[in-house]
Design brief:
Layout: E1 2-4, H1 8-21, H2 28-34, H3 43-52, E2 56-60, E3 63-71, H4 83-89, E4 93-94, E5 97-98, E6 104-112, H5 121-132, E7 139-145, H6 149-158, E8 161-167, E9 172-179
Parallel strand pairs: 6-7
Antiparallel strand pairs: 1-2, 2-3, 3-6, 4-5, 7-9, 8-9
Length: 184
C-alpha cells in the first residue's frame, strides 16, 4: 500500500530504512549492486518536510518498506551536507530556463528495501508524491551520486532528465529534473 507518512512510527521507520542503506553502512560492492542513500534526516526534519509536502511511503504489513521524501526549498539549509546541491540549483537550467523560473520541489530521497525491489515501488512512490502535491509545482529536482548507477537508471526510467553535474570535492553528482506537468 502506498500512502503518506503521518505518524511518529512512520517517520521512525523511514529513518531506520535510511540507516540500512546509508552509503557508509554498505560495502562498495553493495553500493554498486544495490544503490545507496547519502543524506541523513532526523525525525524533526521529516516532520517539518511533511508539514509542507507529502512524504510517500510503501507499507507491507504496517511496516515501511520504501519511501519517497519531498523537500520544499524553504528547508534548504536544514539537512546537513545538502548546501552544495542547493548552490548548484541556482546555476542550473531546465530546457533553457533557470530553475528559479520554475516552482520546484526537491526529491528529498527515495529508498526501497531490497526485498521489495523490482515491483515498481519507486515509480509508484514518486507518482504518489506527484499527485499529492499542492497545485502548481512544475519540477521535482534532486541530485544523485554519479557512481550510483542503480539510482541514475531508475530515475531515467521515471522520466528524470540530467540537467547538470558537479563535484563537491568528495563526490561527483548528477542533478536531475522531472517535469511534473507532464501527464502520467
Amino acid at each position: 500500500m502506498i500512502t503518506i507518512a503521518t505518524t511518529d512510527s512512520h517517520f521512525d521507520q523511514i529513518l531506520a530504512l535510511q540507516q540500512r542503506y546509508i552509503f557508509r553502512a554498505l560495502s562498495l560492492e553493495q553500493q554498486a549492486a544495490e544503490g545507496f542513500v547519502f543524506a541523513e534526516h532526523t525525525a524533526p526534519i521529516l516532520k517539518q518536510m511533511a508539514a509542507e509536502l507529502p512524504q510517500a511511503i510503501a507499507l507491507h504489513d504496517e511496516k515501511v518498506v520504501g519511501y519517497c521524501l519531498s523537500m520544499p526549498l524553504s528547508l534548504a539549509g536544514e539537512v546537513k551536507g545538502l548546501e552544495p546541491m542547493f548552490d548548484q540549483f541556482a546555476r542550473c537550467n531546465f530546457r533553457g530556463q533557470p530553475l528559479a523560473n520554475y516552482k520546484i520541489m526537491v526529491g528529498g530521497q527515495v529508498c526501497v528495501d531490497r526485498e521489495f525491489r523490482g515491483q515498481g515501488l519507486l515509480s509508484r512512490l514518486y507518482n504518489h508524491v506527484r499527485h499529492s502535491l499542492p497545485p502548481n509545482y512544475d519540477l521535482c529536482v534532486t541530485e544523485i551520486a554519479s557512481r550510483n548507477r542503480i539510482s541514475i537508471r531508475a530515475h531515467e526510467k521515471m522520466g528524470f532528465e540530467a540537467i547538470a553535474s558537479y563535484s563537491d570535492g568528495q563526490e561527483d553528482w548528477v542533478i536531475v529534473a522531472w517535469d511534473l506537468r507532464k501527464s502520467s
